[in-house]
Design a protein that fits this description.
Strand content: 25-35%
Distance between the termini: 94 Å
Low-confidence stretches: 145-154
Mean pLDDT: 79
Strand order of the largest sheet: 4-3-2-1-7-6-5
Radius of gyration: 29 Å
């Protein structure tokens, strides 16, 4: 999804517009890749957790390299979502319209949120538990089995001569 983000010096300034491409890849459904200056020699990519963008719509999230938080709601303007990227030796403060973030997130629901995939996962978990129950004895059964083995393998002593 191609959209306009803004690069800011502070949260309060209007910022400079940057054409950005947000990329979602099904092979890594929990990540978002932001491509800045796409198609130029200055092209930069930054990959971060999709969950940060989703949770950042409501509150400040993230530590270290990526922090996401909602900007103030202002009358007449759309709310902006701020993203602070901290590559080694510098920092970048970016923002995008909340509506653009929502549109991207809605279009890129990861497979595990798909109801049929969730149902299949639940069935597999049930089968795995049944298999464990059949093949792995419980702690009480382990003690009884161990005691039975000890009784069978314990040599018997005779008490006298016959």
């Amino acid at each position: 999804m191609q959209l306009w983000m803004r690069q800011h010096r502070t949260e309060d300034d209007r910022g400079e517009r940057i054409l950005t491409q947000l990329v979602y890849r099904t092979k890594d459904p929990y990540a978002v890749t932001a491509v800045f200056y796409s198609g130029t020699e200055e092209e930069l990519e930054w990959t971060f957790a999709r969950e940060l963008l989703d949770d950042g719509l409501h509150s400040s999230v993230g530590l270290g390299d990526v922090i996401v938080w909602p900007g103030p709601e202002e009358t007449g303007d759309t709310q902006r979502i701020f993203i602070r990227l901290r590559p080694p030796g510098s920092t970048a403060l970016l923002s995008l319209d909340r509506e653009d973030a929502l549109e991207f997130l809605e279009a890129t629901h990861p497979l595990p949120q798909n109801p049929s995939a969730t149902a299949r996962t639940a069935i597999l978990a049930t089968w795995e538990q049944e298999l464990r129950d059949l093949t792995c004895p419980s702690p009480g059964e382990q003690n009884a089995t161990t005691a039975a083995r000890l009784r069978v393998s314990r040599p018997t002593r005779s008490r006298g001569r016959e």
